[in-house]
């Protein structure tokens, strides 16, 4: 895996959605699909300053000027050509959208955030002979707060400008890493794409364990939530890696050591985490067909 953004000691997250940072203007986009993921990214892009763009959305009624909203791909204004088409529909709903897009934009840069749809499968639907360059990205839902994590892959034919445009869109909503093989996007899916759910599960389980140890549920919920937030901030902010941070808070023979001896047993978290991520990666590959 390669990264254009190596971890630094004091990274600051991108400006959260809703703030107006003086960031460079992002490329113009045609966004198709603004549900959970597309909508989260759109909030960040609007906050960061997007070149005049068009959103195809069947649910939203308005968009701040100069952006335009249309109900269907057929309604895209004739005078509009985006720098990047962002496709954020469910994988199984992509084909009709791709067929309509191909008629309107025979040559285009397509940024796909869909899990389990290969570049080859998207190009086959679009029309292989046409000038379509597909960049794949796997973001995650903290994009909503400007704290997303996205892996990107670009095929060799992508130009530096196409890669820069796509990266700038994902950078506007969090951190980015490039991977150098398309198959690794499935691995990104297993780690960070699905990863927020693993952390939410940890919060649920920690809350339950706190209740089992006599705490009121709301108290346990706050303890779990804020512990994960604080530990996440340490990981994000400090130059120290996770294993060292763990060792730093584990006194030999102490309470944390007692808990970690249970969690770190070979058949506990190490095995469960590896199996869970492998299951997500397998599912992503199955969806790719
Ligand atoms: N959610 C995540 O955590 C996450 C993380 C990484 C990647 N992704 C990827 O993001 C994609 C979208 O996931 P999601 O969770 O955001 O799904 P979602 O909430 O269902 O959003 C998809 C949106 O696309 C709209 N849509 C479908 N076909 C359309 C068309 N032809 N024109 C315009 N809009 C259209 C849907 O509208 P209707 O409801 O009217 O059909 C819906 O609003 C998926 O491919 C997924 O793999 C999601």
TrEMBL record:
Sequence positions that bind NADP(+): 88-91
A cellular-component GO term for this protein: cytoplasm
Catalyzed chemical reaction(s): L-proline + NAD(+) = (S)-1-pyrroline-5-carboxylate + NADH + 2 H(+); L-proline + NADP(+) = (S)-1-pyrroline-5-carboxylate + NADPH + 2 H(+)
Domain Pyrroline-5-carboxylate reductase dimerisation: from-to ranges: 182-287
EC number(s) per entry: 1.5.1.2
Subcellular location: Cytoplasm
UniProt superkingdom: Bacteria
UniProt keyword list: Amino-acid biosynthesis, Cytoplasm, NADP, Oxidoreductase, Proline biosynthesis
Predominant location category: cytoplasm
GO terms under biological process: L-proline biosynthetic process
Domain Pyrroline-5-carboxylate reductase catalytic N-terminal: start-end pairs: 29-116
Annotated pathway: Amino-acid biosynthesis; L-proline biosynthesis; L-proline from L-glutamate 5-semialdehyde: step 1/1
Single GO MF annotation: pyrroline-5-carboxylate reductase activity
Catalytic EC class: oxidoreductase
A Pfam family matched in the record: F420_oxidored
Record-linked PANTHER family: PYRROLINE-5-CARBOXYLATE REDUCTASE, PYRROLINE-5-CARBOXYLATE REDUCTASE 3
UniProt function note: Catalyzes the reduction of 1-pyrroline-5-carboxylate (PCA) to L-proline.
Homology family: Belongs to the pyrroline-5-carboxylate reductase family.
The name this protein goes by in its record: Pyrroline-5-carboxylate reductase
Organism: Acetobacter garciniae
Gene this chain is encoded by: proC
